[in-house]
Amino acid sequence: MTEQDINAGGRVAIVGGGLAGSLLALSLARQGVGVDVYERRPDPRVGLSEGGRSINLGLSKRGIQALTEVGLIDQVMPLSVVMGGRVIHAPDGSTRFQPYGKDRGEVLHSIDRNELNRLLLDHAQRHPQVRLHFNHRLERIDKARRELEFDHDGEKVRAQPAWVVGADGAFSRARQEMQRGERADYHQEYLEWGYKELSLAALPGGGSQIELEALHVWPRVHCFFVSHPNRDGSHTLTLFLPHEGPDSFATTRTPDEVRALFNKYFPDLIPLLPNLVDDWVSHPTGSLITTRTAPWSMDEWIVLVGDACHAVYPFYGQGMNSAFEDCSALMAAFAAHPRDRRAAFIAYEQSRRPHTDTLAELSKANFIELKQKVQSFWFLARKRVDAALNRLLPKTWLPLYTMIAHTTMPYGDALKRSRQQEKILLGAVSALALVVVGAGVWVGRLL
Known about the structure:
This is Kynurenine 3-monooxygenase. This protein has 13 helices and 19 strands.
């Protein structure tokens, strides 16, 4: 196979114009590459955004790094709201603030998915070599002819790009077509819980009804709410609830059932949500999925990024950040293998897949943390110990959450380091316990 570099042979097709696809289009365009972005939905910059897909996002270090690399971070930050930590809302209405880190530098930034997507598309389109094609749904890929076929308002559109990026989300058609007839692994898992978004309006004169610069969590073992702030003082509330069974989406459909659910689990939210029933009826119920697949590429012609190759549950707030980090990693692989695209694809997957598999497991574990552990005495005590050691040894002792959200350390390396720290802490506690027991025995003998 002849070696081919990033610019060889013509234009690149990116299937999917969401966050990952638009960021990668901008990254490639900055390197002088001609890019065609094909998105199945209408242009999100025109008219209303698509419903059910607007979970606010927590931008953290990995995403910030990727946006910095394309020169956009100064445009993105004014669109966000700083979140310095979690406000935990107990069933009795009391609240407790849990900072994300040891100082104000360790924060998250709440940003609207659609607003960020529009910004990325605008900046990508400013490059004359970028063309955006909306209402283009991928129908099939002819791998032998290296041809893509799209449906555009009932008409067939064919393209023969130099190479292709699949950035079309968890239910990626590009991935399906790439792997058709190949020796490929694919696993998907649905969570038994779904989600529904509601709106907590700003105060009539402006400002927020609850603390603005924080992520709010109403943890209940059976269900929980998470709230992301918006710049106008409103909050996007996301309820996570089982699909089936008692007190589920299946049993919460009528106005009386909705009120009963909130009276049982979230009575303190009822006065803040005067349009609760109308919001409930008008907002769709979403599903939560995690996926793993291999390989992420085929030959030197097609490669996957973002949710197309590793969708995760949203409970660690890393979906967007990880997808953006994919774009950075792919561009780094091109830089390391400037004349061998196949080698770049392979290096990219080898550098990322073990760590995104780790992220999937971390995201599952954080689901349990958010719904029940954040109020546990032992969980809070452990967090305090981590924070104290981090202050005492800022370069040596890093809490797992800090490594995931506030560094670009690979996810697998962060988990390994966290487990090593756990062993050290357990050893120290065990040694202290032996000292205490030994002292007690010695004092007993003296008496």
